[in-house]
Amino acid sequence: MSIERIRSLIAPDMGRVDTVIREKLHSEVVLIRQVSEYIINSGGKRLRPALVILSAGAFGYTGQYHYNLAAIVEFIHTATLLHDDVVDASELRRSKATANALFGNAASVLVGDFLYSRAFQMMVEVDNMRVMRVLADATNTIAEGEVLQLLNVRDPDVDEENYLRVIRYKTAKLFEAATRLGAILGNASPAEEEAMAVYGMHLGTAFQLTDDMLDYSGDYQETGKNLGDDLAEGKPTLPLIYAMKTGSGAQAQIIRSAIERGGEGGFQPVLEVIQQTGALDYARQRAQAESETASNMISSLPDSDYKQCLLDLSTFAVARNH
């Protein structure tokens, strides 16, 4: 599964989105322009804005507002990346230095704030209370997810339910908002809108589950991050949670100690336990289940190239290696 076929369908639309992004990034403050342009141009799949375009297209929307909404979603996402990298003390993202590594933590936090506030300025321009409520609620939920994840750091007693709650809040909520926004613009029925939103939520969960697997099985050239970065930050992700739950007492202790110490005991012993307990296979099965649920939610939509791309994204969420 390649994402290129999906990109080719919406390339003209995404070009319009990029134009909006560049226009709205403008600030008289030079540092804001520098940091914003650096992070926006640092690669990435642009999945969340693409979901706005695809979901709007699936309901036959022919207006212009989806370009602004797609840009708003990307600004919110970018702001969370800037703040995340500061909180996690990250120095590498997508094989490039993080903004905080180049410009400092203070600049990254403040430019993240600028992007949030610019996103809300753009919401007002759309002049649709439903849209504003979806985006405001999503932004608040994402912030709650960030705090929940912070509370979970170096806590080996986090269970699968709490881990999934963080994913739903921190990552999947913006996917859900993106697909709901497209449905709103396309005048979808309440049932169709809800189905599209649930699709987005499960799709976002599948993507994050796959990301967490790749932290123990990916290739640096593909993922742009080093193996074990999550462990080094003391994040109890699903492979670790499952390995602790199903492994022997000794194996569970290796994982527990690694989480508590932020991986100080070494990555290789943890990786061996993960492999011995089949933790990656379990995480992959959970991601696949999320992907299938997402696809089932939109199966009754009228057939179109946009619907097929949304279905393809569900497959890509699990099959990808980056």
UniProtKB/TrEMBL annotation:
Class of the enzyme per the UniProt entry, highest EC level: transferase
Superkingdom: Bacteria
Catalytic activity as recorded in UniProt: 5 isopentenyl diphosphate + (2E,6E)-farnesyl diphosphate = all-trans-octaprenyl diphosphate + 5 diphosphate
Keywords: Magnesium, Metal-binding, Transferase
Record EC number: 2.5.1.90
Keyword Transmembrane helix: no
Gene3D superfamilies tied to this protein: Farnesyl Diphosphate Synthase
Cofactor entry: Mg(2+)
InterPro entries found in the cross-reference section: Isoprenoid_synthase_dom_sf, Polyprenyl_synt, Polyprenyl_synt_CS
GO terms (BP aspect): isoprenoid biosynthetic process
A Pfam entry, by short name: polyprenyl_synt
Primary role: Supplies octaprenyl diphosphate, the precursor for the side chain of the isoprenoid quinones ubiquinone and menaquinone.
Similarity comment: Belongs to the FPP/GGPP synthase family.
Protein name (Swiss-Prot/TrEMBL): Octaprenyl diphosphate synthase
Organism this protein belongs to: Nitrosospira multiformis (strain ATCC 25196 / NCIMB 11849 / C 71)
